[in-house]
Design brief:
This protein is α+β, with helices and mostly antiparallel strands. It has 15 helices and 13 strands. The two termini are 25 Å apart.
């Protein structure tokens, strides 16, 4: 008996028991579809959460003076003249002072912390925000020192009821809880990208953000024009490592002091979080994959039942010349067909379920051809592995005893 005869015989046998064949495949279908669904939603959620964070930090890095270095002097802080020299090299796309600090605002009889970012025209290009309502600061406002601000949409929603209503209103801020509050007119509301990040980590308190022009900050907080750190954007994001080394060399030439300045890529935090989500996604997919093992056990169980039911048929086939290899091949083919067809149906169901679940939870699923083909391959391997024992049992039946069976 050649392969095609064994294949046709296996097909006829499966067609003769369609209901049982489908129920046998059901375990594989559920297992494969679970893996595809969980994997696609997991990758979609991962991309949705970390994509914006990575995009905001891609090709950008901070440079700060190591104030604990024995060679540090206050004159080595970044001041306007030093920043001008860095810009004059034309080695970098954008350079700006980086100033962030906590400020306080009273919401419903309690103080909330907001993270203040000081903006310059270059900083707004480097650390872009998506303006939902209103506008960014315009050119003259960067020099006028007006009491204006941009806030994130979550703060706008919590304070004013909705982001739209915040425009033109004022928000009161103070450096500490004991300091008098100063009112700032809101000219723009931007998207807070940390909302999904915090939800993914199981947190409830989303950080709040506010931005001032640099002139506003210096006027109100009586700040000198020297800064502990700057933010830099590379001309070519792929060459960020080279630029990080390059700026350290330039600063060394300017100050005459080596190893005084440290650099850090902005995307490092997002990459670490991405790594955590990747591990979590792999774990969830693995748990879903356990159902594949259960489905394989179901295939083996049904095939063993099939061997018992067809004992006399096996005896007749051996009596007319079928070898152990022929019997083994037929039952293995039946097992592989069951798991292979179940795998295909599972992939289709997984894609459909991924899109449905994605729409429900508002996460666009990301389907990977690698995971799809891997799932199909695993289903075929399951057919072979869990089909070997029943097939071997059928092949080793004594033809005389098989013919005597009822």
């Amino acid at each position: 008996m050649n392969f095609m005869e064994s294949f046709n015989s296996a097909i006829k046998s499966l067609k003769g028991n369609r209901a049982r064949s489908f129920l046998t495949m059901l375990g594989i279908i559920i297992g494969i579809s679970s893996v595809i669904t969980m994997s696609s939603i997991g990758k979609g959620g991962q991309q949705n959460i970390t994509g914006k964070l990575k995009e905001n930090g891609y090709g950008k890095f901070t440079v700060y003076a190591d104030t604990k270095d024995e060679n540090f002097r206050w004159k080595y802080l970044f001041e306007d003249e030093m920043i001008k020299k860095l810009k004059a090299t034309k080695e970098f796309k954008n350079i700006s002072p980086k100033i962030t600090q906590r400020v306080y605002s009273k919401f419903k009889d309690r103080f909330e912390i907001l993270w203040l970012t000081v903006a310059t025209p270059e900083y707004q290009k480097i650390d872009k925000v998506k303006v939902l309502y209103g506008r960014e600061f315009i050119s003259f406002e960067y020099k006028a020192g007006e009491k204006i601000a941009m806030i994130d949409h979550i703060t706008a929603r919590d304070v004013f009821g909705s982001p739209q209503l915040a425009l033109g209103k004022t928000i009161s801020l103070a450096q500490t809880r004991k300091d008098p509050e100063i009112s700032y007119r809101i000219v723009g509301v931007f998207e807070n990208n940390f909302e999904e990040y915090v939800k993914a980590m199981g947190g409830k308190r989303v950080p709040r953000f506010v931005r001032f022009p640099l002139s506003t900050y210096e006027r109100l907080y009586d700040s000198a024009s020297n800064y502990s750190s700057i933010i830099v954007e590379s001309k070519d994001p792929e060459k960020i490592s080279e630029d990080m080394a390059k700026i350290k060399k330039i600063l060394e030439d300017i100050t005459g002091v080596s190893d005084l300045y440290e650099v850090r890529a902005l995307s490092d935090g997002a990459s670490s979080f991405d790594s955590i989500l990747t591990t979590l996604n792999m774990f969830v997919t693995f748990v879903a994959g356990i159902s594949l093992f259960v489905g394989g056990v179901g295939v083996m169980n049904i095939m063993l039942v099939s061997v018992i039911e067809r004992t006399k048929e096996i005896g007749i086939r051996k009596a007319i010349g079928a070898t152990n290899k022929d019997i083994l091949c037929q039952f293995l083919i039946e097992s592989v067909i069951l798991t292979g067809l179940g795998g295909v149906l599972g992939v289709l169901l997984g894609i459909v379920m991924g899109k449905i679940v994605g729409n429900i939870v508002n996460i666009p699923p990301i389907f990977s051809f690698v995971s799809i083909f891997t799932s199909l391959g695993i289903s075929m391997i399951i057919g072979v592995v869990f089909g070997v024992i029943p097939a071997k049992k059928a092949a080793e039946l004594n033809p005389i005893e098989a013919l005597r069976s009822e």
